[in-house]
Amino acid sequence: MLQKQKTTKKIVSQQLPLILGKRAFGNIPKTPLKPLEGEFEKPEIITSTIPGPIGKRLIEDLGRIQEIRTIHFLVDFDRSFGNYVVDSDGNVLLDVFCHISSLPLGYNHPSMIKALRTRDAVQLAAHRPALGSLPNVSWGPKLHETLMKVAPEGLTRVFTCANGSEANENAYKTACMWYVNQRRGNKPFTDEEIQSCMLNKPPGTPSLSILSFEKAFHGRTLGALSTTRSKPIHKLDVPAFDWPVAPFPQLKYPLDQFVKENAEEEARCLSRTEEIIKSNKIPVAGMIIEPIQAEGGDRHASPDFFRKLRKIARDNGVAFIVDEVQTGVAATGNFWAFQKWGLDDQPDIVTFSKKSQIAGFFHREEYKMTAPYRNYNTWMGDPLRLLQFEVILNEINKDDQAMLRNVNITGNYLQDSLKELAKKYPHLMKDVRGDGTFIAFDSPTVETRNSIVNAIKLNGVELGACGDQSIRFRPSLVFAPKHASQFLDIFESTISKLK
Fold this sequence. Notes:
With 499 residues, the protein is α/β, with parallel strands linked by helices. It is built from 15 helices and 14 strands. The longest helix has 42 residues.
């Protein structure tokens, strides 16, 4: 921590001050969350471009061996802290994107650094175990103390793995195995099934499908990619399963002015989804849906839509899979975003990754594998990442869940302020929406959206894009009203200069 403070002073002394406007966005609300001691006071930009000269040189060198066209800039983790990221040139930016929603406590959180310096962390890093065969002695107790503490009601088992794509991929396998086992009557595999599967032929390799929704994103492995529908660039030139796609509601905003139209749109999508399940040439074993379609443009639907969708899955014997890879772990104001739906029957499978650090899925008891090695790989996740999740969970639960309350307070303040700005700059932004700090708005064109993201970066903010013309907010859970106020000041200062 002392080294961090020395570094901060050195950086600030070299930087030109960012001139902020004197804009008011109402009273900054109070938060129960304690501030991080030693955090930067504001962004500081010292180069005329981001990346600057050092970053450009390093990225060019990296480009000789890896794809670099998606890189925003190179991060100096030693100097980054809290909600502020420092790049290779010494620029300090307010990070409202947080590595695509995967950095829940911000940079160098004291509790995380302390935990990773312990003997337990060193041993787990030095001996990454093959968890399916040789788990460490603390693996079981730690699962009970962490992941199972936040498991959705009725989902009594958990499978762990490395990333979101892998979580969804294994969830699809689980749904298909469950589906066939129900129809097999829980009987042993036949000789014909055993022999035919080795040739990728039925009956051992059944023709089944996973239904997903327009604009969905569920990963980039072959099965997950077959359910991803957000952008063509993800899918071009890659073989895919012939799996069905259902419409996802395209709501109109403000919601209170389009109640009838949005209800009709949701009813249309529900009707079409059930029609597809009943008539699809390949039987539908499961459906997967995001509580908020993140990569597809932060598209929302009402709790009633999801409740009715869950009933459609249950009535038709289809596994109901909720993808909480991006929405999970408190960003929406609930630990799991689907908890706002008010379901009377919980999902069958819930996948997670990103903010939890470790990935995997929870599932009902009846989805348990009927034989070993059916869902299995060498590592099956990483106990070091589970240690990190334990730190995150402890911080969320600290001080009567002050961090979760902070998300709701900050999210309401940020969203209300953005709605006011949308009225003032309707040619640049519209349709502000979100839950907690999981917020987005649309620009009229992709060019306008990109110009905002690029311009605000040069004013000290790392912001994200999604969908065709959306800007999304994915700040850390320690992003407080004071950070939101600082962002809003920089944001309006930026867009006021755009045409």
